[in-house]
Amino acid sequence: MDEVTITDLTKNFGKLVAVDHMNLNIPAGTIFGLLGPNGAGKSTTTRLLSTLLRPTEGTAVVSEFDIIKSPVQVREITGVLPEESNHTIYPSLSAYENLEYFARLYDVPEEDIPERIEELLTFMDLWERKDDKAGELSTGNRQRLALCRALLHRPKVLLLDEPTSALDPIAAKRVRELILGLSKEYKQTFFINSHNLPEVQRVCDQIAIIDEGKILLHGPTQELRSKLLAKQEFRIRLVGDIATASSIAKSMNFVEEVKEEVDSILVTIEDPTENNSSLMRELLSSGIKIVEFAEEEASLEDLYLEVIKGGDA
């Protein structure tokens, strides 16, 4: 069953078309990633789904409630983490007091409030910091507290806008782990906006790519990754003659491009699942000592180029 159904969703700001006739179906329990550069329409989509904006055309249904006809019910069953999530908590209140305040705003039953707050703060590793003022917490801990706020009323759908933006790598990793843990624990549906392809690949079951308000591609993450990255770039770090290794790689008919660097070669390979081992055997048999043979992480720009070149845009 689909938890989110988007039909011809469109939002214009004057002559600017921020979201252009979007159509998406997101199954219940899915971690979904909407990818695109700044200005692509990601945040506008989140604001439409959370009923903060009204669409120019089309509509969306979130857990059986239409965003136009039933906005109050949509807000009741969604949890929102905006990009400026640190601004959605009160710095002068403690972590516990923040959640207590928002729990009452969400009409959480009074008798359930202490248990829910303790459960969430414990899950987020913040229980020991419950009495600290929110403004004194680190950026990563404030982000986790904002996630607690979004989860207080046990929403069916979580709308997260750039949930790891401005976080250091350790804090970002922790938030990714939390999303995976929450999905497993509470079976909620996540709608995540991001411009960070590698991050989304780690957590999302499905992705869609948006640019200039239009969806370019949509499907299961691994399926799209396999389709779009049929030709992948690998870094082969080695000890020995770079020129010889480069010459060997260029002689293989499945190698499209070879770039030489100080201690490695960058090789673009067709169908790497089938051909990586052949290239490695050829290099080793020629006396090349391989230190590392690893895929270069594709950027969002690389993905767009593959989409456009393949005629799928």
Summarize the structure.
The protein has helices spanning 42-49, 71-76, 95-105, 113-123, 139-151, 169-186, 197-203, 221-228, 242-250, 272-285, 300-309, and strands at residues 2-13, 16-27, 31-35, 57-62, 65-66, 78-81, 157-161, 189-194, 206-211, 214-220, 231-239, 255-260, 264-270, 289-295. With 313 residues, it is an alpha/beta fold.
Textual characterization of the structure:
This protein has 313 residues and is of the alpha/beta class. It is built from 11 helices and 14 strands. A 6-stranded mixed beta sheet has the order 6-7-8-3-9-10, with helices on both faces. The chain is globular, with a radius of gyration of 23 Å. The two termini are 28 Å apart.
Unreliable sequence segments: none
Q: How many helices does DSSP assign?
A: 11
Terminal-residue CA separation:
28 Å
Strand order of the largest sheet: 6-7-8-3-9-10
Q: Strand-and-helix sequence, N→C? A: EEEHEEHEHHHEHEHEEHEHEEHEH
**β-sheet strand percentage:** 25-35%
Largest sheet, strands/sense/barrel: 6 strands, mixed
Q: Which structural class matches the secondary elements?
A: alpha/beta
The general outline is globular
